[in-house]
Specification:
mainly alpha; 10 helices; globular; disordered N terminus
């Protein structure tokens, strides 16, 4: 099959896949950081111009964002950025808790030496970002931590399952961490999970995940209480 036939059949190249990944990461961050605010309409053309890339990777990235609940395709109108629901975060944490424990268990047992070195670097980085109050860098490191922990678990099903819940959590986290001044505590929770995984200590890794989940639940309930009081 020659190149013209490949184009006609719609085959993709590694470069095409990477462009979609880049578009997805950029758009997800723009939604998380509210550069694309909730309940606003966006278009492939607009985003293509803003990100300086073709409409095909933008279209594919938007489909991936739809699958994790970040955008909604509306017939004859375009694509709308979805809003967030604080109460749904509590439901999400209920789902995440046992899965995060499984990730920590598998990673502590299965991570390679190279992966443990990478997790050690991330542990330092998130503490530094918290100390500096750099919310964007903190957000990016938080994403890397989740991705690297899941990779270290060496379970393909977990990779797919955790991606959406981590993305939704990042969105809530970004919107509320600054108001709650929770940088240092959040960094400490993440760092203790990482250090237990690095040490291969399964029991400590699971205990540290439980502490992290309790912290996130406390943050969520505090935000919900503030929201409820302000709505009266």
């Amino acid at each position: 099959m020659d190149s013209s036939e490949e184009q006609q059949t719609g085959s993709t190249t590694p470069l095409d896949v990477r462009l979609v990944d880049v578009a997805f990461e950029r758009l997800e961050e723009m939604i998380v950081t509210r550069q694309l605010p909730p309940n606003t309409m966006v278009s492939e053309l607009q985003l293509s111009a803003e990100l300086k890339m073709g409409r095909t990777p933008i279209r594919e990235a938007l489909q991936r964002l739809r699958q994790i609940g970040f955008v909604e395709m509306q017939p004859r109108r375009g694509t709308m950025v979805c809003g967030t629901d604080i109460r749904q975060q509590l439901e999400l944490l209920e789902v995440r808790r046992p899965l995060e424990e499984l990730v920590a268990r598998c990673a502590a047992l299965r991570a390679s030496d190279e992966e443990r070195r990478g997790l050690s670097e991330l542990s330092k980085n998130i503490r530094n970002a918290a100390a500096e109050g750099d919310v964007i860098n903190y957000l990016r490191i938080n994403r890397q931590i989740h991705e690297k922990e899941v990779q270290a678990a060496h379970n393909g099903m977990l990779t797919n399952v955790m991606a959406a819940s981590h993305a939704q959590s990042r969105r809530f986290w970004y919107q509320n961490i600054q108001q709650n001044k929770a940088f240092d505590e959040g960094a400490d929770c993440h760092s203790r999970v990482l250090e237990a995984i690095i040490a291969g200590n399964v029991e400590l890794a699971i205990d540290s995940v439980r502490d992290l989940m309790q912290f996130l639940e406390r943050l969520t309930r505090s935000t919900l209480a503030e929201f409820s009081n302000s709505s009266w």
